[in-house]
Design goal:
Order of helices and strands: HHHHHH
Distance between the termini: 12 Å
Helix content: 55-70%
Largest sheet: none
Number of strands: 0
Length: 85
């Protein structure tokens, strides 16, 4: 699971610096859609892992339109505690 989390956090770390990625993520509302976008870019980001991270961060499993990037950034910001816990 640690390797899987590392890959997820690498992808999430791209969001703030990649305007195109951020815009794409704002078009989606579900973890499955995030998984598809990540796969297009060559990253393994399983929807099940994202859902687990959302739950551990007390985030809803679905984002309202235009807010997925913020949800994912909040998860990324908590990465140290999520990997340790």
């Amino acid at each position: 699971m640690a390797n899987q989390l590392e890959a997820v956090f690498v992808f999430l770390g791209l969001i703030q610096g990649d305007a195109d990625l951020r815009a794409r993520l704002n078009e989606v509302c579900t973890a499955d859609e995030v998984e598809a976008i990540a796969a297009e870019r060559g990253y393994a980001v399983p929807a099940a892992t994202l859902l687990e991270l959302f739950q551990r961060c007390n985030e809803a499993p679905i984002a309202r339109s235009g807010l997925m990037d913020e949800k994912l950034i909040r998860v990324w910001l908590r990465r140290q505690s999520l990997v340790a816990g």
